[in-house]
């Protein structure tokens, strides 16, 4: 089904939330969405996503940390989908300062991702904007990514996994991709008041060879 034929994904409560830039990072509606301690994670994700250079898609601009790494590592062009209007505005301001070609799409990925072309690298790092997304997140993205990822392309994402990588998560990956490699990002300096991560490491996956080739 084309994007246009689907009922649009909407989460007005998210788009109307206040945005606050704090010394620790980004809060939306009082919720911790992104923090600076995640830099080593973003660097690794960007390194994966730019492996083939080419066309890179990022989902979720946040603080633009991974976007900066993507620009630093280099690619032919970069497209970011960002749902929150105030954060999308930040992304546009950032785009104006970049030397690589940047496209900012202000929407939920669910509404637009199928009409942006094919990508060589995809970096997925969103935040649960409603109850469904809270239990879904990357799970709903994995099956559709196959249709806009180049056959030799790679998909990486914020996994929320430790060395005890959950077997159901791995199984889900292998349902859709034939190859996955992992990097353990160590020595994370997570502040004690961080409400969403407490470990000193995270395991980041890089998926390739989608099972359904385009
Ligand atoms: C964790 S932040 C991204 C952090 C980013 N990687 C960085 O380095 O700063 C998550 C972002 O995803 C956006 N977002 C959440 N759900 C989304 C969706 N369904 N489509 C597009 N953007 C989404 C949020 O508004 C937020 O800006």
Write a structural description.
The protein is an alpha/beta fold and 214 residues long. The protein has one domain (12-210): 3-Layer(aba) Sandwich (Rossmann fold). The chain has 8 helices and 10 strands. It has helices at 12-15, 39-49, 65-73, 85-95, 109-112, 131-136, 138-145, 167-176; strands spanning 19-21, 25-28, 31-35, 55-59, 77-82, 101-106, 119-124, 149-157, 177-185, 202-210. The strands form 2 sheets. The protein has a 7-stranded mixed β-sheet, with helices on both faces. A 3-stranded antiparallel β-sheet has the order 1-2-3, with no helix packed on it. Helix 3 (65-73) links the parallel strand 4 and strand 5 (77-82). Helix 2 (39-49) crosses helix 3 (65-73). The longest helix has 11 residues, at 39-49. The chain is globular and about 40 Å long. The mean pLDDT is 94. The protein binds S-adenosylmethionine.
Task: Report the biggest beta sheet as strand number plus sense, adding barrel if it closes.
Answer: 7 strands, mixed
Total discrete domains: 1
- Looking at CATH, the homologous superfamily is Vaccinia Virus protein VP39
Q: Kindly report the CATH topology.
A: Rossmann fold
Structure characteristics:
214 residues; alpha/beta; Rossmann fold; 7-stranded mixed beta sheet; 3-stranded antiparallel beta sheet; 10 strands; globular; binds S-adenosylmethionine
